[in-house]
Every structure is written in structure tokens, then in C-alpha cells.
């Protein structure tokens, strides 16, 4: 809501319970105002665990360091200075090859021999197979972007490759956890809480740890799309939130704090709080439209391959 501060939001919540009279402000009661702000912080903190409360997703790109397997991610952290993700999305976590023309034995050309994206090459077998830039068989693969034609890839243009997001069980069962390869094949967010002081900036940080498998030997990048956690400012800060969030925040804060004042919220307040939250959830709920699973072979024109097409290579 344009121009409204957190003090205004807290006054609305307190007024909903008749804790402050209509027309009065919490500015004359800083102790109560700060207590309400703390309660708002913890309310929003719990909302951040639910993707249906998320107003938008943010895109972040981070540099990989050859020989480094784990990276601290958090505000002011020494590795990746960004908001800590709550979790990673399996369909929105990518590796960016910063110079794909140098991948594989055809260096100097634009074939990416160890990568294919959401599609198999058109044509009859046999093909060249290349693993970690070493030719081990026949299955030449060109770069196919988003199911498009198999054309040469422009030099210097990053190539986006979906990166597998591992569960803790999958991460714990990797046979060669420190294997060094050209670029990572998978990643894992351990969701730990790491605190410290950035040795360069001197600023304190709270971060979590992001791991890759295998350990990169080349300089490339990680691209993350993760939901933007809502934040709470100081009493005089403007509440910069998307449409509908201001009402949902003060009404649900009123319901949250009512018991502390020995008050039962009215039926109207309860209904309005639920309705305001439902509108946010409806808008922010993940798109459940049917889509092809990442990595499943498809025909260039769309549609899954049949078993005979997959085995023969002719489709």
C-alpha cells in the first residue's frame, strides 16, 4: 500500500482488536509498537516457508570456483552474497556454461558433445558418446536449445543446462562425493545455519551451504530461481509489498496477537483475514499445468518417444 509504514500497519492490526481507539496511533506507545513489530516479523517468517505466500521468484546467478565444492549463500556471506533460499526448485536450478564452444573434443567449433537438453538428436544411430570431454563411443550431440533445431551454438553465449537437485538421501549415497569433473551434474542445499564475519567486508552474515557434485574444474556459473522471502522493516519504513499483502498482513496479525490481549477476534475479522490470505495463495500458487518432466526424451515436434523410437533412434 503506497506510503503506508509498518507503524501504520501495526496500528490497523491493533485497532482491529480495539487495543487502540480509532484515530489514535501507536507512535505514543513505542514499547507496544515494537512488540507488535516483533510479532509481525515471526508471522512473516512462518509465511516464508510456504511457496503459496510468495509474491515473486527471483533469478540469481553465481560464479563457480574451480576446485571448490561448497558455497555459503546468504546476505554478506563471503561466497554468494544473496538472500538465503528456503529451498531449491527442481525445475528452476541450472548450470550456465559460460563458454560452451570449448566443451568436448570439438573445441574451436560449436558442438557441445557431452550435453543434450530435453531432446534427443534426430537421425539414425550410431552416435558418438562423450563423457567429461573424453570420447567413449558413438553418439555426437549438438546443442539443442528448448527443443529447437540442432544448430551451431554461438561462441561466448552461456548455455543453460538443468541441474539436478538432490535430496539428502541422494546426496548421502553418492559413491564418489569429491569427484572432479568439467562442470557439476547435481547440487544439494543442506539448509544449515552458518554464522560468521565476512573477512573482506567485516560484516556479520547468516548463511546456508550450497553443494555441487562433481567438483568443477572449469569456471562456469549456477543460476537459481527461488522464491523471494518477505521481509519486515523498521517502524518508520514504508511497507513495500505486492497488491493485497498489506490487508492480509494486518488482519492476520490481529488474529495472531488477539490472545495476548485476552481478546477474541470477531467473526468478521476472522473471515476477512482468511479471505485476504486465500486471495494471496490463489495468485501465488505454483502452476500445476501438465508439462513434460525435465530430462524425459521427446520428439522435436513435441510428444513423448515410444519405446521403439527410443531404441531405434529413428523418430
Helical residue percent band = 10-25%
Strand % is 15-25%
Q: Report on the biggest sheet.
A: 6 strands, mixed
> In one word, what is the shape?
elongated
Distance between the termini: 55 Å
How many domains comprise the coordinates?
2
Work out the radius of gyration: 25 Å
Number of strands: 14
Oligomer: single chain
| Uncertain residue ranges | 102-147, 288-292
The pLDDT mean sits at 78
What is the count of helical runs?
Answer: 6
Pairing-aware structural class of the strands and helices?
A: alpha+beta
Write down the secondary-structure element order. Answer: HHEEEEEEEEHEEEEEEHHH
Commentary on this structure:
The chain has two domains: 6-54 and 230-284, Orthogonal Bundle (Hypothetical protein yqbg); 57-224, no CATH class. It contains six helices and 14 strands. The protein has helices spanning 6-16, 30-47, 168-172, 245-257, 267-284, 307-312; strands at 57-63, 70-74, 80-81, 93-97, 130-131, 134-135, 159-162, 164-165, 180-181, 186-189, 194-197, 204-213, 215-216, 221-227. The chain is elongated. The model is unreliable at 102-147 and 288-292 (pLDDT under 50).
Amino acid at each position: 500500500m503506497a506510503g503506508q509504514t509498518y507503524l501504520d500497519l501495526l496500528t490497523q492490526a491493533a485497532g482491529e482488536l480495539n487495543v487502540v481507539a480509532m484515530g489514535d496511533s501507536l507512535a505514543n506507545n513505542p514499547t507496544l509498537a515494537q512488540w507488535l513489530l516483533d510479532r509481525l516479523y515471526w508471522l512473516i517468517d512462518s509465511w516464508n516457508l510456504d511457496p503459496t505466500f510468495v509474491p515473486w521468484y527471483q533469478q540469481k546467478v553465481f560464479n563457480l570456483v574451480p576446485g571448490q565444492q561448497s558455497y555459503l549463500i546468504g546476505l554478506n556471506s563471503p561466497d554468494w552474497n544473496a538472500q538465503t533460499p528456503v529451498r531449491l526448485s527442481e525445475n528452476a536450478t541450472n548450470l550456465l556454461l559460460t563458454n560452451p564452444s570449448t566443451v568436448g573434443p570439438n573445441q574451436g567449433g560449436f558442438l557441445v558433445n557431452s550435453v543434450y537438453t530435453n531432446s534427443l538428436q534426430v537421425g539414425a544411430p550410431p552416435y558418438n558418446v562423450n563423457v567429461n570431454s573424453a570420447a567413449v563411443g558413438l553418439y555426437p550431440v549438438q546443442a539443442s536449445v528448448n527443443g529447437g533445431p540442432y544448430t551451431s551454438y554461438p561462441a561466448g553465449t552461456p548455455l543453460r543446462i538443468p541441474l539436478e537437485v538432490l535430496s539428502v538421501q541422494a546426496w548421502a549415497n553418492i559413491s564418489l562425493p569429491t569427484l572432479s569433473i568439467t562442470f557439476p551434474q547435481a547440487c544439494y542445499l543442506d539448509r544449515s545455519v552458518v554464522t560468521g564475519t565476512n573477512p573482506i567486508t567485516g560484516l556479520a552474515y547468516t548463511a546456508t551451504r550450497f553443494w555441487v557434485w562433481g567438483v568443477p574444474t572449469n569456471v562456469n556459473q549456477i543460476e537459481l530461481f527461488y522464491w523471494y522471502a518477505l521481509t519486515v522493516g523498521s517502524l518508520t519504513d514504508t511497507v513495500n509489498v505486492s497488491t493485497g499483502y498489506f490487508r492480509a498482513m494486518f488482519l492476520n496479525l490481529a488474529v495472531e496477537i488477539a490472545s495476548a490481549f485476552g481478546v477474541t477476534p470477531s467473526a468478521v475479522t476472522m473471515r476477512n483475514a482468511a479471505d485476504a490470505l486465500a486471495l494471496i495463495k490463489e495468485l501465488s500458487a505454483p502452476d500445476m499445468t501438465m508439462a513434460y518432466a525435465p530430462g524425459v526424451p521427446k520428439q522435436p515436434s513435441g510428444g513423448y518417444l515410444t519405446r521403439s523410437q527410443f531404441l531405434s533412434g529413428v523418430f
